[in-house]
């Protein structure tokens, strides 16, 4: 385990990453109920920046047309997915709009929370934190780990994914060694959620009582 970089008395920024099915959202849910913490989920941010009046809204309509709009003139997720289905070039263009906008939103909020000090912790969850260089932005980067067989079982049971789809997703994500090499702390979420939270609690309490 790497040296603890967290400091009591300031808003600590912690990145949460890990492979699909590792249980990042479940870990963050219990953290949000146990600490004075703000949780920023990249999927939620991606949805918010597509809303009317946000920068990505007009860019996506310019790229994909009015066919992606619902009756309320907001971008319809299902219609947008249908518009880019099977077109890797179009998907790449969409990601070139969304990824920078998500990063800008997150970085602006990190800056704001550091200044306001309303929270002891801000947790930022995203699958691509390492690839996007967040280990140089956050105070610590945490890796939520779960055994591959357990992750597969979770994805089959809770999301209805086929084995083929799971294997395809795994192949496009970082491997365990890469996550461990780049992260400051590993949470083993292969067992119960209480066991995972105990690991988190010990890590945070090592810098003082909260």
How is this structure best described in words?
The chain folds into 2 domains: 9-36 and 120-202, 3-Layer(aba) Sandwich (Rossmann fold), CATH 3.40.50; 45-118, P-loop containing nucleotide triphosphate hydrolases (Rossmann fold, 3-Layer(aba) Sandwich), CATH 3.40.50. The radius of gyration is 18 Å and the shape is globular. The chain contains 9 helices and 5 strands, in the order βαβααααββαααβα. The protein starts with 11 loop residues before the first strand and ends in a 5-residue tail after the last helix. The longest helix has 29 residues, at 88-116. It has a 5-stranded parallel sheet, with helices on both faces. Helix content is 50%, strand content 12%. With 210 residues, it is α/β, with parallel strands linked by helices.
């Amino acid at each position: 385990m790497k040296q603890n970089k967290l400091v009591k008395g300031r808003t600590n920024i912690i990145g949460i990453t890990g492979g699909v099915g590792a249980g990042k959202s479940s870990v963050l849910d219990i953290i949000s109920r146990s600490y004075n913490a703000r949780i920023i989920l990249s999927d939620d941010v991606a949805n918010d920046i597509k809303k009317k009046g946000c920068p990505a809204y007009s860019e996506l309509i310019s790229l994909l047309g009015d066919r992606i709009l619902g009756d309320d003139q907001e971008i319809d997720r299902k219609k947008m997915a249908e518009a880019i289905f099977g077109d890797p070039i179009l998907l790449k263009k969409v990601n070139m709009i969304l990824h920078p906008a998500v990063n800008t939103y997150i970085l602006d909020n990190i800056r704001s929370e550091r200044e306001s000090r309303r929270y002891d912790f801000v947790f930022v969850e995203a699958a691509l934190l390492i690839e996007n260089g967040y280990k140089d932005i956050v105070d610590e980067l945490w890796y939520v780990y779960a055994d591959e067989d357990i992750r597969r079982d979770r994805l089959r049971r809770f999301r209805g994914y086929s084995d083929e789809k799971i294997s395809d997703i795994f192949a496009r994500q970082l491997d365990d060694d890469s996550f461990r090499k780049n992260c400051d702390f590993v949470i083993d979420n292969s067992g119960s959620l209480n066991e995972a939270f105990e690991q988190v609690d010990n890590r945070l309490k090592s810098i003082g009582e909260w």
